[in-house]
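Renewal narrative, Specific Aim 1. Our central claim is that a sequence can be written position by position from structural information alone. The example that follows is taken directly from our test logs and has not been curated for this report. It begins with the structure tokens describing the chain, in the order in which they were read.
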């Protein structure tokens, strides 16, 4: 991607479930990443303590009927990140969605589009 777009305005990372955990690790290793979208992060399965300090604001999406990752564990992750100075975490819950967002894919797409549009207009994440 760096070869195709050597000087991008925005560099974000996005991942779902295990991919969200991997994406957040990448966020910590690549200073050019300026934002993230984390969908159904496995906060009950993997340690996210490496996000201290978290270098960027981002979006976390979670389904209210996620039986793989309990919502209170994701809320703890959100609270920990939100407590960091200069970091804004937008936390959205999709009512009735399971871990894989079956039958809620359009909701995920719409929330990601809205968030990305807002962040591109307000790059500081506010």
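The sequence written for that structure reads:
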């Amino acid at each position: 991607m760096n070869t195709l777009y050597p000087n991008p305005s925005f560099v974000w990372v996005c991942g779902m479930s295990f991919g969200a955990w991997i994406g957040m690790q990448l966020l910590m290793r690549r200073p050019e990443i300026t934002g993230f979208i984390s969908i159904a992060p496995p906060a009950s399965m993997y340690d996210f303590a490496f996000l201290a300090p978290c270098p960027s604001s981002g979006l976390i999406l979670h389904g209210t009927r996620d039986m793989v990752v309990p919502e209170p564990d994701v809320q703890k992750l959100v609270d920990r990140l939100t407590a960091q100075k200069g970091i804004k975490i937008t936390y959205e819950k999709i009512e009735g969605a399971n871990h894989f967002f079956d039958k809620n894919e359009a909701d995920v797409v719409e929330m990601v589009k809205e968030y990305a549009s807002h962040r591109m207009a307000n790059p500081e994440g506010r």
